Amino acid sequence: MILGIDVGGTHTDSVLMQNGKILRKSKVMTDKSDLLRSVMNATQAVTTPEDIKQLRRIVLSTTMTTNAVAQHQLDPVGLIVMSGPGVAHGDLPLSDRAAFVKGYMNHRGMEAEGVDEDEIRALKKEFAKQGIKHFGVIGKFSTRSPAHEQTVQALLDGEASHVTVGHQLSGELSFPRRISTAYLNEAVWRLHSGMADQLQAYLAQLGVNVPLYILKADGGTIELEQSRHFPVQTILSGPAATIMGVLPYVPTDRDSVSIDIGGTTTDIALFADGAPLLEPKGVQIEEHKTLIRGLLTHSIALGGDSHVQVVDGKLALGPERKGPAMAFDGPVPTPTDAMIVLGMADVGDKAKALAAMTAIGAALRTTPQQAAQAIVDQACATINAKVRSMIAEVNSKPVYTIHEMLEGKQLAPADAIVIGGPAPYIAAALGNSLNMQMVVPENSEVINASGAAMARTTVELTLMADTEERLMSIAEEGVQTDIPRGFDMDDLIEIGKEKLQKIARIAGAPEEDIEIEVADSQSFNVIRDGSTTGKNFRVRLQIKPGLSKHATL
Amino acid sequence: MKKKTGLVFFPAFDYAISPTHPEREERLLYTQDQVSEEGLLDFDNIFEFKPDLCTPEDINRVHFCVPGIDELVHASHLISVGGTLTAADKVMTKEVDNAFALVRPCGHHSMRVVHGTRGFCTLNMEAIMVEYIREKYGDKNGIKKIAIVDTDCHHGDGSQDIFWHDPNTLFISMHQDGRTLYPGSGFPDEMGGPNAFGTTINLPMPPNTCEEGFLYVLDEIVMPILADFKPDLIINSAGQDNHYSDPITNMKFTAQGYAVLNDRLKPDIAVLEGGYSIESALPYINTGIILAMAGRDYSQIREPDYDAEDQIQDPRISDYLKRLKEVTLSQWKNRHELRSQVYPDQPFHTRENSIYYDTAGIRESQVETVRTCSDCGGAVTIESRNESRPKRPIFAVQIPRFCCDACRAWAEEQFAGADKYTYEQVLLQDKDQDTYIEK
Lengths: 553, 439
Hints:
The complex is a heterodimer.
Chain A: E1 2-7, E2 11-18, E3 21-29, H1 35-46, H2 49-54, E4 57-62, H3 64-70, E5 78-82, E6 98-100, E7 104-105, E8 111-113, H4 117-130, E9 134-139, H5 147-155, E10 162-165, H6 175-187, H7 189-206, E11 212-215, E12 221-223, H8 224-227, H9 237-246, E13 256-261, E14 266-272, E15 275-276, E16 284-285, E17 288-289, E18 297-300, E19 306-311, E20 314-321, H10 335-341, H11 350-364, H12 368-395, H13 402-407, E21 415-419, H14 423-434, E22 437-439, H15 447-454, E23 459-466, E24 471-474, E25 479-482, H16 489-507, E26 517-528, E27 531-543
Helix pairs in contact in A: 1-7, 9-15, 10-11, 10-12, 11-12, 12-14
Chain B: E1 5-10, H1 29-38, E2 46-49, H2 56-60, E3 64-65, H3 69-72, H4 75-92, E4 98-103, E5 113-114, H5 125-137, E6 146-150, H6 157-163, E7 169-176, E8 200-205, H7 211-229, E9 233-238, H8 255-265, E10 269-272, H9 282-293, H10 315-333, H11 335-342, E11 348-357, E12 362-371, E13 380-386, E14 394-399, H12 405-417, E15 425-430, E16 435-438
Parallel strand pairs in B: 1-2, 1-4, 3-5, 4-10, 6-7, 6-9, 7-8, 9-10, 14-15
Antiparallel strand pairs in B: 11-12, 12-13, 13-14, 15-16
């Protein structure tokens, strides 16, 4: 059995699952002051003491770090940035609170300017005076060579309670995003660590010895203790939980789209041959553009409870929600009222829904039914337009080889999975508008909890080898070592796979979930004075977001 | 001031002329690394676009491909030229204020007639773009006069050939002196054909010219002439091989200098040409150009091995550039009077060209005739022979854009009169009607 819990801002959802089926489900109010209590209540709502003994794992998704960022409840961080020449400091994120120091690497990971240790020692004293205990150390091209970040980290020893070094966060290139990500990681570090302590107390209280996982923004899980290192990865895991919940309904032999229609917003995600698409560069939270891998999702301000009004003779849907539908004693007309009047939804007070549509009809000079139809048509058209623009955006993403340019995959979803309160009512109409096959899953009100429950552990690794310099590096591991003569791409992939297997095990992946794929591999010549002096290999390995094989146990 | 800048980036990681050739797969690899690491595409005023493919119609507006496009053109060319057209579209539709096509392979050594690849170039990207803009947007956007400033270290002899008879295109090439570098042309007395005299301007600079010299030529020669010509559009044919670290040239320009140049020139569209210092120069130059075009702070752009001492320019170079300024500005001012000295009053002017294709190893010989005309750029005929092949020559007829009736009548007569027994191919390129016919 698996227990999945999603602690949201308002509700905490939980599911108890076995063989991929939901045995019990629950929705309770979140106690914002006491996470432990919310989790305990959600657990008790779906389990008996007998069930708890049979649990194989618990997966938790929480918005705690997300909320902390949104509400600016962040700890002060000492940011030490080794920028070197390039984009002006003033154009880098958080530049007003960063200390820019000497030292930088070039694009091949060769030292262009060394670290000034005296400068760092002086800075350390300065931070001590300010009482700063959390540090982010970020160097340009530190993914190519971690040496400078490691030097500075060592120099901070004794002063810091925790230091985030940029290269461990991601193997992707983007110095500004590395700065933001390192900052956020430290800024929520204490908060997340406190939560991890609480959750360990929760496990002790339950009296079970099963792994507890936390959901990340990429829809993957990570074992609780391991999550302490990179709490930033749990930011924006909420939408990811939902997308993972949809995954069992997503066909694996063709492309599809998921549409989550809520009260105020509709969230859209895309799947290529069954795999959820990721944000190309990393997720953005508030003003912070990060390197955190996250699932691609776009949101529009349109839902079942959107405020419907007539402005200048034209229908306007959303962006605000004033309350529930009038059929449920809400203050203003909504799309839900329209669906009730058209007989699409058999819920609420039909007379009140009709009154809502009569008002809209009067403003449009049509019958209430025509007004209701116009609202549903416009809602479907708006969602359709957003889906189309999202697909177009994915398909117009630049590529860098002739092969991809001529043969590259074009995303063409033919199926839509619709979830959320209004989903069963609007699915048919939306299907017509999208011209797609519609699927409306059961239990969609707790789909985020079941998504968390079923998600597998994700990991990734970025490697580079330079046979001219006879060096290889593993970006996230901060490893830079010598390689022998004759080293080739296969050797690099082999080393990477072995390393990533270990990382996956530490992150909590069961053996059967360790399916490593080569996400990207490139090989280039290194030429000096007209002759080939070496090769530059680049490899990215991953266990991509998907369903855990445990989910069927 | 911040500007919306479009970036069409196509490094063609799977294309090379040969594995160790300067024009090879990883030429833009480290540039891509630097642009990614600097996070340029996260700026709210810099946008990346996927290139479109260019079509045979786009190519036929400029070139006579012999024996045909399919035999000469590789997919990489269709994408790199297509990328420049995408950049043009984005600017013309005002989606962005300016755009940089950071694409390869390059194109400015390709001439009107193409028998193969020369100077690493097969199709002339800027020229195809210029005619594309005129055809697609000329009337709508009121674009007639276009200036191309070629800042590649090598003389842009292909672009010069293509616009030799076009009075509406000002072609300015600033490059390393042709006596010291391929292709060996581009001297101040190469000033254009009889109907477009003066709108070709060559600014050869001595080896070892530094930042100071480049910016002097820009500020004192190029900018005043541009101000006088008043182009509707400025294109930078942006080679990056003037850099002090370039392995196949001898100049001393810098990344910071390239940024300043683009900041002052303010091109509507920049197109990458040469530049072969793929690790030490291109990453920094391209970052600088993108920042400058976007109106961002580029003051902290500097190569790791930049040496201020090395930028002290030999005074003899400065003296030479002063004389170059005097000669060029005087020629520009007096171009109408000078024309009659160079081109005596006669109905037709004929020149013979011998063109070597270094990359393909071909020798082409041409006889080109232009009809002297004061009403338009003049119709042109070219008889061209690939000396490496025992075949008959081809005969190409070109009707210019804004062609006058007399030139059109003459051109059509030439096309009708050329017979298939004398010539391997007889071709007619009509820019005004946007057609290309093989007899």
